[in-house]
Design goal:
Blueprint: E1 2-11, E2 17-25, H1 31-44, E3 57-64, H2 67-76, E4 79-84
Antiparallel strand pairs: 1-2, 1-3, 2-4
């Protein structure tokens, strides 16, 4: 499965900047849908979903998905790759 990777940054309340990738099927090109997935992730982390703006989430590249990412996308429609300060 080919996926699109969206490089995403959000300022946390403690001042640190979260960095994570939103992974979606390559067929999804609706940027607002990608933002909604990011907001769902932030809400699950207990953070304000409104902090995710379009200018902080941009298409980076396409790649082949691992089997774990494919399974997560099949389950919930997207996957998140946590990079920095996501704990």
């Amino acid at each position: 499965m080919q996926i699109s990777v969206y490089d995403t940054y959000v300022q946390r309340p403690d001042g640190l900047r979260m960095h994570f990738d939103i992974l979606v099927p390559a067929a999804i090109s609706d940027h607002e849908q990608v933002l909604q997935y990011g907001r769902r992730y932030l809400a699950a982390k207990g953070l304000a979903a409104s902090d995710l703006k379009a200018e902080k989430c941009s298409f980076c590249h396409m790649q082949s998905a691992s089997s774990a990412v494919e399974a997560e996308i099949a389950s919930i429609g997207f996957a998140i790759l946590e990079m920095e300060h996501c704990g």
